[in-house]
Amino acid sequence: MRRRIIGATALVATAALVAGCAGPSGSSGGEGSSGEPVELRFLLWATNPDQLALFDELGEEFVAENDDVSKVTFESVTLSDLNTLLPTWLASNSPPDASWLPVESSIEYMNADALVDLNPTLKDVEGYDYDDLADRMQEPWRDGDAQFGVPFSNGPLIMYYNKDLFDQSGLEDPSAAVEAGTWDWDLLREDLQKISADSGKTGLIFDAFEFKNWVRMLPLIRAYGGTPWDENGEECLMDSSEMEAAYSALHEMVYDEKITPRPGQQADFWGGGAATTIAYLGSNGLLADVDFEYGVVPTPAGPGGAGQHVGQSAMVAYSAGKHTDAAARLVAYLTNPESMRKLSAYYPPSRTSLLNAETMEESAPVLDAAQLEPILTAVLENGTFTPVAPNNAETTAALNAALDQFVYGEDADIPAALQQVCAAIQPTLGG
Known about the structure:
Radius of gyration: 23 Å
Distance between the termini: 18 Å
CATH class of the largest domain: Alpha Beta
Largest sheet: 9 strands, mixed
Shape: globular
Order of helices and strands: HEHEHEHHHEEEHHHEHHEEEHHHHEHH
Strand content: 15-25%
Number of strands: 11
CATH architecture of the largest domain: 3-Layer(aba) Sandwich
CATH superfamily of the largest domain: Periplasmic binding protein-like II
Mean pLDDT: 91
């Protein structure tokens, strides 16, 4: 991955990060200035007691194997709090030693030299098996030979469907269409129009979209070959022909075909009120309480091919931390083969040896390996990650606001509206 050039607005946001990245003099090792064992602080946004207990267990194991570390504290914060607090902590030389970090923040922190290059540590730790890390999933965190994060959670957006509604309308099961190679957006839209006409129920819900979160549209965008900006985050591509086709398809599904809720309308797939929903694999637990037969499949293909979107978070260590060497070793321990195997009970892993349907089944207990195999295949063959801009938070906010203002209305002229979107977000990009 090439390093991105940060634009003027992003430089303002990251200047504070750079100021804190050098770290206190003589504090890069494991022991404190007095030679005493140190305590490490790790931030994450987990709230599940079982998940937190597992991290505590792994932390205790790490301490037992590292004499220069006396304690590892895992602090749970919300993701929004993490995004707000980290820049302040980094600027004041008081960050956590390590944390989870979403892929959306990768470029900004890498370009600000805020993250420790983990590559030497990962390759030096005995038994780590660096080559087992799936290359495709490491790409957002690598820059040449350097590696600034190790993905531990790789959750795909998948399609859940109500088998009963497909059966009642006499339609082919989506899983059969996947197997036959005919599963695409044209077929889905045709099927959902029939289901809506027969049952009066909603066809498709983009979970957690609500015309506010553009990322939830990525399965449709990728299927049409679209991306919001170029790979360096310098040029807006929202007005490209591919994006025009994707947002025209959304507009048609909402206002012409009426198979997707309009702004302000509500429908509940899990309560039986819709035929399909696109949601993360981690939502599968909600199926335990449904009163209909269900299935899961990869999201449909389109003119741009089969683009299976994958959400991702990594473990990182901060270069402004007081104990960077110990923090890097902690990240290595938490992502070694045995630790990642344990964590795979909750988080889809990024090690080749664990990328199989049986392992995925552990983190998706409501589903079985046969249901998960096509999804895993789609992830490995066509997986794509969230496009990231150098100043991602500002760009994302500007994009969501511009889409709401210009694109989502019933009377929107999509080509002209997308040109207005580009005019709105271009100043936030790196070009």
